[in-house]
Design goal:
This protein is mostly helical. It contains 11 helices and no strands. The protein has one domain. Helix content is 74%, strand content 0%.
Length: 259
């Protein structure tokens, strides 16, 4: 079992070595996101915005990067196989679906953790913001991690059953989650139809709960965590089911064997 799981992890490592630009999204992208938004908020504070604005946005940046890198690991596990026309080899080996999920998820967890430390360090030294002061509320990264795996599997199900035309969802969904989950603002300010949809996303509740660790809406922190965790498990179950169905359809219509 360990060999099958580590094989997917190893593949990501090989890709990163052959394509150093892939490490850009782990070390540089989070840094750019933090500095660009951080400087903007710092400017707003100098012009009268509350100092808590910095905390509010930084928590969102941390959560969103954690989501983005985890989803990327799950989807890139399929994407590079399609690009190299080796998809049939990945799913003809003895590895099972849960090996694929665990192997790619572990790499996603590693890359997300590295980006988290990058953001935490720069946030502290550049802006004096200590993300670790959120204490146990940082456990909300777990529902975000599970949610990212779920969305990654749903995107994968479309790619293995319908082809590379669905690759755009890899980057599109990360943006959708950012907008709907209130990364830079409270989800309550969204227009009514969008706000109702946002409540169906685990990330919305997990980010709100993380902010409770820094004094924002403390009274709802635990409830938001429970909702976020429950929703993420529902999404994970749905993602696994859809991925299995996508693989089955991919074999039936030749999508997997042709790549």
């Amino acid at each position: 079992m360990f060999e099958e799981i580590s094989a997917y992890f190893y593949k990501h490592r090989k890709i990163a070595r052959r394509r150093p630009i892939e490490m850009f999204v782990v070390f540089i992208d989070p840094l750019i996101a933090l500095l660009s938004v951080g400087i903007l908020i710092y400017f707003a504070i100098q012009n009268g915005a509350p100092t808590s604005s910095l905390m509010f946005v930084f928590v969102g940046v941390v959560a969103w990067n954690f989501y983005d890198l985890t989803q990327r690991a799950l989807t890139y596990g399929i994407t590079f196989d399609i690009w190299s026309a080796s998809l049939k080899h990945s799913f003809s080996a003895k590895a099972k679906i849960y090996h694929f999920i665990l192997g790619n998820s572990l790499y996603g967890l590693l890359s997300s953790a590295i980006a988290f430390l990058v953001i935490a360090s720069v946030g502290f030294f550049a802006f004096g913001f200590n993300i670790f002061s959120g204490g146990l509320y940082l456990i909300n990264l777990i529902p975000i991690f599970i949610f990212a795996i779920s969305i990654g599997l749903i995107i994968d199900s479309l790619m293995v059953s319908k082809g590379e035309k669905y690759m755009a969802l890899i980057w599109m969904m990360a943006g959708v989650v950012m907008i709907f989950s209130g990364v830079y603002y409270p989800a309550d300010v969204l227009p009514t139809p969008i706000k109702e949809i946002s409540q169906l996303l685990p990330a919305t509740h997990s980010i709100a709960s993380m902010r409770a660790g820094f004094g924002y809406s403390v009274e709802t922190g635990l409830a938001e965590f429970a909702i976020g965790l429950s929703l993420s498990i529902v999404y994970l179950i749905a993602g696994i089911i859809l991925f299995k169905k996508g693989l089955k359809k991919g074999y039936e219509n030749g999508m997997i064997t042709n790549y």
